[in-house]
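From the pipeline queue, job 12 of 40. The input is one protein chain; the requested action is below.

Action: predict structure.
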Amino acid sequence: MNAHPRPHPLAELVRMRRVTEYAAEVTVSDGQRFVSLGGVVVRNRRLALLWLRRQALRLANGHGLPLAPEPVPLSSGDDVRPVHFHGSGAPAELRRWATHGPHQDHAIRALEAGFPALFTVLDPAVGLSLTLAGWRGLPADP
C-alpha cells in the first residue's frame, strides 16, 4: 500500500496555474529588423503591467533619467535601454498610455483573459516603432 497518495490531477493543475509567470518586453523596429531594449519575467500580470508603465514613463520623460520610486520596487537593472525620440509625438503617446486609466484597464483585462497586452508608438521622423508587450508565459512564448 502506498503511504503517499498521488495528488488529484485537478489539484496539480490548480497548483501549476498559481505559479504562472508573465513576461514583458520593450522592442524597437525599423520595419525590417527589431531589437529588444529589455524585458522581465514576473510572478503576476499586475507586476508585468507595472513594469511596462514604468518603462513607458522612463522613455517618455527624459530618456532614462530616474523617476520617483515605484510603489513596488523593481531593481534598476530591469529598466530598458534609453531611446532618443526625434519628435514629441511618441513620448506623449507613451505618457498617455501609462497614465490613462482606460488604457491600463484594457491592458490588464487582456492579460487576465490570456491575451497579450500590446502598445506601439511610432517615431515617423526616423521610421521607428517602439512596442510595449506583456503576455502570460515565458519570453519564448509570446
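Job complete. The chain has one domain: 21-136.
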